[in-house]
Amino acid sequence: METLYHLIEQYGLLLVFVNVLVEQLGAPVPAYPTLIITGAMAQGGRYPAALLLVVAVVAALIADFTWYLAGRRYGRRVMAQLCRISLSPDSCVRQTESIYLRWGARSLLVAKFIPGFASIASALAGTMGTRRSSFLLYDAVGSALWAGLGIFLGSLFSSAVDDLLDVLGQLGHYGMMLVAVALAIFVANKWWQRRRFRRSLEMARITVDELSNLLDQGMAPTIIDVRSPLSQQGGRIPGALTISNQEIQTFAFDGPVEGEVVVYCACPNEASAAMVARQLMRRGYTKVRPLTGGIDAWVAAGYAIDV
Fold first, then answer.
1. Other beta carbons within 10 Å of 8
2. pTM score > 0.85 for this model?
């Protein structure tokens, strides 16, 4: 543990850069403990606090700008992939779009304080064609607020941080094990939250071929599109009702409770569609199924959409 302490003291700036870069690229390796520890060291004169802040902001900008360029080039596919690999169960594309559509690039000022939002917001900014200068400006300020808070907390509680490091140092190898266990618990907790979220969405689904057959046979079910308004602009399944972000918790329609209802979205694991389907079931609708693969599977199968 003493060796680790000296490594942080000697290579703290490099450690901050790598930790922030890796976290902002999407790995579940929290950078705030590193910022707090190095912030405490900066308070003791081991690092210039301003330089520490600049290093953290530059690392965050590199990661965020990478996602911005990926979103600009590959569009929604990047956001969907981010949702699949994210350990945050609430980081679906719809939530991010809702916030970004309301606040625009200004949402980047607080993006890093919202779990699961930062990387997807950067990719979304590129997808929506946000000006590069606006993205870099707001993202830089947001990164400075985020990193600056961690550094400030470290300096504010520097004596407590020093005491903690001293205790870990006295524990020797056990201190290292304690740090490793804490990190493992953090990652495991995130993984369990995601697993529990996915399990809560398990229910019967309908395939795009089955839905197409129902439409061809004149047995059209009530079809509900729960994507964001931005996504809905690209077209929807013929006859689908659309639900805005404001209506997601309170919507109602005139379909009979015993009638067939199909809900679709453009979210990995049909997350938004499954959540809305659960709401409808609680209201008494008995035949509600999310569409497997959502609108992407419908389009990939070659079926028509209304623009």
1. 17
2. no
Closest by CA position to 42, among listed 31, 33, 51: 51
Q: Tell me phi and psi for residue 289, to 5 degrees.
A: -140, 135
130-155 pLDDT, tens digit per residue, is: 999 999 999 999 999 999 999 998 88
SS (H, E, C) 139-201: HHHHHHHHHHHHHHHHHHCHHHHHHHHHHHHHHCHHHHHHHHHHHHHHHHHHHHHHHHHHHHC
Is 222 in a helix, a strand, or coil?
A: strand
Residues 99 and 77: their CA atoms lie apart, in Å, by: 19
- C-alpha distances in Å from residue 275, one per residue of 75, 201, 263, 294: 25, 7, 10, 14
Domains and CATH numbers, the chain: 2-200 (no CATH), 208-300 (3.40.250.10)
Among 307, 222, 233, 227, smallest CA distance to 265 is for 227
